[in-house]
DNA sequence: ACAAGTATGTTGAATTTTCAACAAAAGGAG
DNA sequence: CTCCTTTTGTTGAAAATTCAACATACTTGT
């Protein structure tokens, strides 16, 4: 377990928790590590939410697919980030999303029961854990607001520019990489892929942006 | 303050907290009550998030307006419900949304500083408060997922039907009222109002639904 | 009861998006 | 290197959304 400490230290769930305490805590929480191949479904839509996940290596996507096969990408998850915490905390009987391995990855799973109901020997860090979880959920809620700010735009062009502007801001400069290929970006922005490609071409011709693959530059 | 206890008891923030403890707690939190007229801006976009709000009477809307004046309604808030908690918990320096009074309303405000940093005399219920807040944020996150499930649909018709189906499920029957007028529903679904009206007419003619004003029936 | 203002429904034109199909480019496996 | 697969760009036609304008119904305040 120790080999993951570098990642876990950066996980918001364990903020302000010392290494010395972490190991005992993980035991107390019944944390386990699992590995998944690329494209493997880590959590399937429709199944009950029982675990909080933490990505240790690789990456995963939160996706929603409707009966027509339209995929909507809700977010992308990287090492030391948490997923499915909202569903686990609310103990929902049926996940409204799936979590898919983007590439081979390792994930730490912690059962929500262990988090929600203080353990008998009540490790003193449980309160801190709840607090951290609260902080994390607040951050996630804000992320959703940002996503809505993007997808509420009515045109492909505006959605794309809003998204790219946010990414530039986040990267602290006009050059940055995005974590999506074209189809994924379309599924994130909720637009048609070919229309998105066309729009990118247009913006390029207008001299508004440069891009090669997933590297963008706003001009 | 006592006259609001009926409402506050139902507020998820005070779940499992006894009436006897509530009064002291509210004092400890520095809770204050304010009144707002219809259409008044309770919290303005761009201002720092300092307070959690609880609606005591009337109702409010969370809205986002872009530079073209396109309004997007994020949610509707009724008595005993909390708002702005995510921004307060994350102490964001600039609110990405506004909160507008839908009708004359009373609101309880609790400063986030009081919630996040345990008070010196450390009332024993603070831990429970954090836990409740965590639960509430999990629920809100799930609400956002539902909203995305609606708005990620590509056509007005599908958005509308997805929304109405969810409302019917929530109401536990095929007849139900929605909390929006046509323009608000359009702003919630992120579609054009006239197109929405046209779609409703079409669904009526096809015998799929009945409606008068904001009362709907799925057939 | 009336007038003024607001909300809703309806329409056609303009614009966009979606869809389908294909070509070109890039990436991976052997 | 070559073949095969996947990704990306391009296009035109079909479908849908948006927009503007207006008629009608409904509310509200006086």
Provide a descriptive summary of the structure in words:
Two copies of one chain form a homodimer. Chain A has 219 residues and is an alpha+beta fold. Chain A has two domains: 2-146, Jelly Rolls; 153-218, Arc Repressor Mutant, subunit A. Helix content of chain A is 41%, strand content 24%. Chain A contains eight helices and eleven strands. In chain A, the strands form three sheets. Chain A has a four-stranded antiparallel beta sheet. Chain A has a four-stranded antiparallel beta sheet with strand order 2-7-4-5. The termini of chain A are far apart. Chain A binds chain B through residues 64, 66, 70, 72, 74, 85-87, 89-90, 92, 96-97, 127, 130-131, 133-135, 137-142, 144-149, 151-154, 190, and chain B through 64, 66, 70, 72, 74, 85-87, 89-90, 92, 96-97, 127, 130-131, 133-135, 137-142, 144-149, 151-154, 190. Chain B binds a DNA duplex (30 and 30 nucleotides) through residues 154-157, 181-183, 191-195, 197-198, 200-201, 213.
């Amino acid at each position: 377990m120790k080999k993951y400490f570098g990642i876990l230290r950066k996980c918001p769930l364990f903020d302000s928790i010392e290494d010395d305490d972490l190991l005992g805590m993980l035991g107390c929480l019944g944390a386990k590590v699992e590995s998944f191949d690329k494209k493997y479904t880590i959590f399937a839509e429709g199944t009950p939410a029982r675990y909080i996940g933490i990505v240790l290596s690789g990456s995963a996507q939160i996706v929603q697919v409707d009966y027509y096969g339209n995929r909507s990408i809700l977010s992308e998850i990287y090492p030391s980030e948490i997923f499915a915490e909202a569903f686990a905390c609310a103990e929902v009987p049926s996940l409204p999303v799936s979590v898919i391995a983007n590439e081979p990855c390792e994930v730490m799973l912690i059962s929500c029961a262990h988090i929600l109901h203080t353990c008998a020997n009540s490790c003193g860090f449980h309160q801190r854990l709840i607090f951290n979880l609260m902080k994390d959920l607040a951050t996630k809620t804000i992320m959703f607001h940002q996503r809505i700010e993007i997808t509420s735009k009515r045109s492909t062009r505006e959605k794309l520019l809003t998204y790219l502007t946010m990414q530039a801001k986040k990267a602290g400069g006009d050059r940055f990489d995005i974590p999506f290929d074209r189809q994924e970006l379309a599924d994130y922005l909720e637009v048609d892929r070919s229309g998105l490609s066309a729009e990118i071409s247009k913006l390029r011709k207008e001299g508004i942006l440069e891009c090669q693959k997933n590297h963008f530059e706003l001009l």
